[in-house]
């Protein structure tokens, strides 16, 4: 026999309903959202259809209501010391420095401005010829980047 679903909460916005649904699912409670697509397409229909309905199985009603009560009261029972978090993604970018003064206060010019401007003038669209040039703001020197071989 199929398990009956019981509506335990209604929300005016689908976003809020999804957040609570995710919390209940993380606690191991099977739940579903009703009328979320109607309200997602026409938010002003929320009052007419009764909002987004959060539904759980009959056997999980008491546990789900207890969790909802904790959420509304602001009680958080997560032990963040025991949760293993993924390390943040770090991108290791090589810092370019001025070969003359060693400063990292530089700017990078990726496109050749002369070719870019002339092609735009005559053709009506720019041709992006790559030319990596760097300018140091401290000493005013300009240099071209050297291509790395073997990479």
Question: How would you describe this structure in keywords?
Answer:
31% helix; single chain; 151 residues; 6 strands; three-stranded antiparallel β-sheet; alpha+beta
Gross morphology:
elongated
| Order of strands across the main sheet | 1-3-2
Annotation field: number of helices: 5
What is the H/E order?
A: EHEHHEHEHEE
The largest sheet is: 3 strands, antiparallel
Q: What's the alpha carbon Rg, rounded to whole Å?
A: 29 Å
Description:
- This protein has 151 residues and is α+β, with helices and mostly antiparallel strands.
- It is 31% helix and 22% strand.
- The chain has 5 helices and 6 strands, in the order βαβααβαβαββ.
- It has helices spanning 14-26, 36-41, 46-49, 61-73, 113-123, and strands at 5-11, 31-34, 52-57, 106-111, 130-136, 142-144.
- The strands form 2 sheets. Strands 1-3-2 form a 3-stranded antiparallel beta sheet. Strands 4-5-6 form a 3-stranded antiparallel beta sheet, covered by helices on one side.
- The chain is elongated, with a radius of gyration of 29 Å.
Summarize the structure.
The protein is of the alpha+beta class and 151 residues long. Helices cover 31% and strands 22% of the residues.
């Amino acid at each position: 026999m199929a398990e009956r679903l019981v509506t335990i909460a209604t929300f005016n916005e689908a976003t809020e309903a999804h957040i609570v649904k995710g919390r209940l699912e993380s606690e191991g409670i099977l739940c579903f959202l009703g009328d979320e697509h109607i309200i997602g397409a026409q938010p002003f229909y929320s009052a007419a259809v009764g909002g987004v309905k959060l539904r759980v199985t009959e056997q999980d009603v008491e546990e789900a209501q207890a969790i909802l009560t904790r959420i509304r009261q602001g009680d958080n029972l997560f032990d963040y010391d025991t949760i293993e978090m993924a390390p943040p993604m770090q991108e290791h970018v090589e810092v370019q420095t001025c070969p003359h003064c060693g400063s990292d206060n530089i700017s990078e010019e990726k496109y050749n401005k002369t070719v870019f401007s002339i092609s735009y003038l005559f053709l009506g669209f720019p041709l992006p010829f790559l030319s990596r040039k760097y300018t140091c703001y401290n000493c005013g020197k300009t240099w071209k980047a050297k291509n790395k071989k073997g990479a």
